[in-house]
Amino acid sequence: MERVSECCRGSVPLVLSGNEQCQSRERKMALQCACERGDGQNLVTEDVTVVEGDVATISCRVKNSDDSVIQLLNPNRQTIYFRDFRPLKDSRFQLVNFSNSELRVSLTNVSISDEGRYFCQLYTDPPQEIYTTITVLVPPRNLVIDIQKEVAVEGEEIELNCTAMASRPATTIRWFKGNKELTGKSEVEQWSDMYTVTSQLLLKVGREDDGVPVICLVDHPAVKDLQTQRYLEVMYKPQVRVSQNYPVQGLTREGEPLELSCAAFGKPQPTDMRWLRVDDEMPQHVVVSGSNLLISNLNKTDNGTYRCEASNAVGKSHADYMLFVYDPPTTIPPPTTTTTTTTTIPTTITDTTATTEPAVHGFTHLPNSAEELDYGDLSDSRAGEEGAIRSVDHAVVGGVVAVVVFAMLCLLIILGRYFARHKGTYFTHEAKGADDAADADTAIINAEGGQNNSEEKKEYFI
Questions:
Q1: Which residue from 83, 125, 285, 423 lies 20 to 30 Å from 96 (Cα-Cα)?
Q2: Is cis: bond before 169, omega within 30 of 0?
Q3: Looking at residues 102-113, what average pLDDT do you find?
Q4: How many CA atoms does the CB half-sphere of 241 hold within 13 Å?
Q5: Is 414's pLDDT higher than 70?
Q6: What is the C-alpha to C-alpha distance for residues 177 and 432, in angstroms, rounded to an integer?
Q7: With 0-12 CB in 10 A as exposed, 13-18 as middle and 19+ as buried, what is 212?
Q8: How far apart are CA 350 and CA 343, in angstroms?
Q9: Max Cα-Cα span within the chain
């Protein structure tokens, strides 16, 4: 913060001669008059904040200087520099710049004892004086995390404490687990001019926290990125998983083999792993080898729930596999449809035979177990089977119709040719009775019904 002597603001300045203040009314009026005359000289300085051990620079500047004398005094009112001369025997103070308008002095290796007000004086008539404040920051000297339990068990609540010692001002502590910020409870203790801060964090741990760092981070104006961390170690019971090695996909059918494997992960690593059948005894033909279970020839009696159990020092866990054995696949013989049409006419017989064979429809695989049945897949399978059956029926009907049409065409052709061969005229023998008659009357009688013996009669035989 920049400070300017009070005279330039038109108020009565604070004038010090040694340790005494000029309080008389006449003196104040004289100072006001000096300001009002427009002498224009005034002191300017700024406050200084420095980290312990670093360098502080004090600057006393004069605006509109007329070669008046400038001096710098310490908090004990001892003269550090009078113009460019150093009466004080403290070699940490060094002259950086001296001119008619500025006196700049550096202070190296700053300590807490150097904190306070430093005075700039300008020997004018009347004299002027302003002060600058040096503030010394002290970063935490030590940052430590204490953990209640070095090794925790899943589900436990543990306590962590982070302590930042001997800082000035008091520090602010923040907690992080991985990248997630957590909230702790802080307590501040003051010793002389120094502060010690302790923050407490209560954390319930799970298996996902194993190996995760817990970070204690310090917010302090004297230091950046000061932090410490501890890695959590969490023990947890096994996590078990059962997988089907064979068949890789499809149903578990009667007569086929089945192979299951069991995997378990925990901390510590599981040492005991076993297979059992829930609510029933394990079939004698089942082979268990380590973490694998093998059934070489499935049958309906194998249906049930098979469990893999694993345990460690923390506890026991298991995973189940429900087995449902389906019927073995069946082969459907291809259906055959035979249509025979026989037509009998004089001197001609036609026999036509047609055979249609539909394609054989194959079955699709169903899910691995009863719990995993996918009704959408079953619907698609049924729809495919119905479509195949409909295609077979259409083929059979088409074949029959083709045979019938072909037989009718053949029949029409044969009848046409037969009619053409038997169409014509011929004479009857009805007048032959007259030739064999005994007399004329008998001949006439026998000849009745036909006036002309030579008359031709036409008949058609159908």
A1: 125
A2: yes
A3: 96
A4: 6
A5: yes
A6: 138
A7: middle
A8: 6
A9: 207
Q: What angle do CA 202, 208, 211 make, to 5 degrees?
A: 80
Query: What is the pLDDT at residue 281?
Result: 93
Separation CA 307–CA 282 (nearest Å): 11
DSSP strand pairing (286-289 vs 234-246): unpaired
| pLDDT, tens digit, 9 for 90 and up, residues 12-68 | 334 333 333 434 344 444 444 444 444 567 899 999 999 999 999 999 999 888 888
How far is residue 131's CA from residue 140's CA, in Å, rounded to a whole number?
Answer: 29
What are the tokens at 336?
Answer: 């055959």
CB 242 within 8 A of CB 323: no
Q: How confident is the model at residue 333 (pLDDT cuts 50, 70, 90)?
A: low
The pLDDT of residue 422 is above 90: no
Spatial distance between the Cα atoms of 409 and 352, rounded to a whole number of angstroms: 12
Q: Are 264 and 317 in contact (CB under 8 A)?
A: yes
Q: Which of 291-303 are b and which e, b meaning 16 or more Cβ less than 10 Å from the residue's Cβ?
A: bebbbeebeeebe
**89 Cβ neighbours under 8 A, 6+ residues apart:** none
Distance CA 241, CA 425 (A): 102
pLDDT for res 118: 98
pTM value? Answer: 0.59
Quickly state the pLDDT bin for 335 (edges 50, 70, 90).
low
C-alpha 238 chain-centroid distance: 24
Cα(395)–Cα(397) distance, integer angstroms: 6
